[in-house]
Design goal:
Radius of gyration of chain A: 13 Å
Number of helices of chain A: 0
Largest sheet of chain A: 7 strands, mixed
Oligomer: heterodimer
Number of strands of chain A: 11
Order of helices and strands of chain B: EEEEEEEEEEE
Helix content of chain B: under 10%
Structural class of chain A: mainly beta
Number of strands of chain B: 11
Shape of chain A: globular
Order of helices and strands of chain A: EEEEEEEEEEE
Radius of gyration of chain B: 13 Å
Chain lengths: 114, 110
């Protein structure tokens, strides 16, 4: 039982390049999330998917697109990377447990855009 | 703008003491409140959540919520050096929209 996995772990991009961050979970959770974490700013929600086939914007969606490929997988795409997108990206999944959404996080992807 | 504020610290406490971590939030309609622990270079791990006013205990951890004051806290009893980490307060503001605070760095001194 791997929990939430993310690939790649590290990535360096040049400005204007595109890439897709992959996330998968094996806990049969309905909900999945993408966050970014910058120093001193905590985690900020980019997009989330409450169920297969649905996606919703979070606090900072500009410059990103997402795809909920199936119940297990939720990908994040940067179409034209900018230095402001240098960050650590975390994927999470959750389901209702004890009346609340307990989120489980993947190990993160450290992205640098030069 | 929905905001969650935390003192960035570092908060230093001696081993065996009680560590008290605080968080305030701006949206009165916020539904529930979470505490996560994050070790340096690692991903956040859920400690506990609370959604009713009052105290909720789980082992050495107690979460306290005061909705009138828009304040939530986490007490860690018998603090251990292994508790040294950054503690993130998160608020579910509506639906599945979560807002995180910047975190408080805790250092437990042996």
């Amino acid at each position: 039982n791997a929990g939430v996995t993310q690939t790649p772990k590290f990535q360096v991009l040049k400005t204007g390049q595109s890439m897709t961050l992959q996330c998968a979970q094996d806990m049969n959770h309905n909900s999945m999330y993408w966050y970014r974490q910058d120093p001193g700013m905590g985690l900020r929600l980019i997009y989330y998917s409450a169920s297969e086939g649905t996606t919703d914007k979070g606090e900072v969606p500009n410059g990103y697109n997402v795809s909920r490929l199936n119940k297990r997988e939720f990908s994040l795409r940067l179409e034209s990377a900018a230095p402001s997108q240098t960050s650590v990206y975390f994927c999470a999944s959750s389901d209702l447990a004890g009346g609340e959404y307990e989120q489980y996080f993947g190990p993160g992807t450290r992205l640098t855009v030069t | 703008q929905k905001e969650v504020e935390q003192n960035s610290g570092p908060l230093s406490v001696p081993e065996g003491a009680i560590a008290s971590l605080n968080c305030t939030y701006s949206d009165r309609g916020s539904q529930s409140f979470f505490w996560y622990r994050q070790y340096s270079g690692k991903s956040p791990e859920l400690i506990m959540f609370i959604y009713s006013n009052g105290d909720k205990e789980d082992g050495r951890f107690t979460a306290q919520l005061n909705k009138a004051s828009q304040y939530v806290s986490l007490l860690i009893r018998d603090s251990q050096p292994s508790d040294s980490a950054t503690y993130l307060c998160a608020v579910r503001v509506y639906g599945q929209n979560f807002v995180f605070g910047p975190g408080t760095r805790l250092s437990v001194l042996p």
